[in-house]
Specification:
Keywords: Coiled coil
Structural class: mainly alpha
Radius of gyration: 36 Å
Number of strands: 6
Largest sheet: 2 strands, antiparallel
Shape: extended
Low-confidence stretches: 251-255
Number of domains: 4
Mean pLDDT: 76
Order of helices and strands: HEEEEEEHHHHHHHHH
InterPro entries: Endo/exonu/phosph_ase_sf (IPR036691)
């Protein structure tokens, strides 16, 4: 019956899981020490079988009980529970910098009006918080949600939303419109991706690339003496490979400069 119960509930008998001497296995001894039996068991879920490190009996334990003390050693790892909090809308920092004077004046006026209030500290804090949030919301505004990829256009977002509406319509018209929207979205995606790559290749979207090239030129101009110095040629080659090539690759937008590399470059400036 125990075996059937374990099979039905996906359990294992941990007493039989480890190789032990017989004196560490039996849990009950008949009067007169005529027979010894294993009557007590520790059952665990099959999923947690590797958490059980040892199971044995302690026949020499000084307890007022006929059965021997049965102990098990477990090693478990507690999983950290991550609670995700919904992030509120962010304010537009560019507008905040532009309208900083009006924001400051409005906050001074509103906070001055509620500054003389007395009462519960929690109520005062809520009033101050609402005053600041309302002022930022009215004068600065929120940051619009940015798509994950720069090549995703508003046209593609509209087609995705429309395609989602027809996805679960199980009739001929719904399937026909879904296929049409899917094909249109595929063509729009390919066209937008091509245009985005062309903008990069045609230097119409080159702010980041220009900054990388400028850093590349500055690094080489500061280290011209390195190429004509009297250092050993192998040492000069290692320095160029270590520092100058990294800057060149960064300017070519094929590698990102790390903070440690920046420190190395600053230490070599002449």
């Amino acid at each position: 019956m125990l075996i059937d119960f374990c099979e039905r509930n996906v359990l294992i008998v941990t007493n039989t899981w480890f190789k032990k001497p017989k004196r560490r296995l039996y849990t009950w001894k008949a009067p007169g020490d005529r027979r010894r039996h294993q009557l007590d068991y520790i059952l665990v879920k099959h999923r947690f079988r590797n958490s059980v490190k040892d199971v044995k009996t302690l026949p020499g334990a000084d307890i007022d009980s006929d059965p021997n003390l049965l102990v098990a050693k477990f090693q478990t790892r507690l999983k950290k529970i991550i609670r995700f909090q919904k992030r509120g809308p962010l304010c537009d920092l560019e507008n905040l910098y532009t309208y900083r004077q009006s924001v400051q004046e409005t906050l001074q006026e509103k906070l001055g009006a509620i500054g003389g209030e007395s009462g519960n500290i929690e109520v005062q804090w809520n009033n101050i918080k609402e005053c600041i949030l309302n002022t930022i919301r009215e004068l600065v505004g929120k940051v619009e949600k940015i798509t994950r990829k720069p090549c995703v256009t508003q046209e593609m977002m509209s087609k995705m939303e429309e395609r989602r509406k027809w996805k679960n319509v199980n009739n001929e018209e719904g399937r026909r419109k879904y296929r049409r929207l899917r094909n249109e979205l595929k063509r729009a995606t390919e066209r937008a991706k091509k245009e985005y790559l062309e903008k990069i290749y045609d230097a119409r979207c080159t702010n980041e690339i220009k900054s990388r090239i400028a850093m590349d030129k500055a690094a080489f101009s500061k280290k011209k003496k390195l190429f004509i110095s009297k250092l050993d040629s192998n040492l000069r080659k290692k320095l160029v490979n270590c520092y100058n090539w990294s800057i060149a690759l960064y300017g070519a937008e094929t590698w990102t400069l790390r903070a440690v590399d920046q420190k190395h470059l600053e230490s070599l400036e002449m």
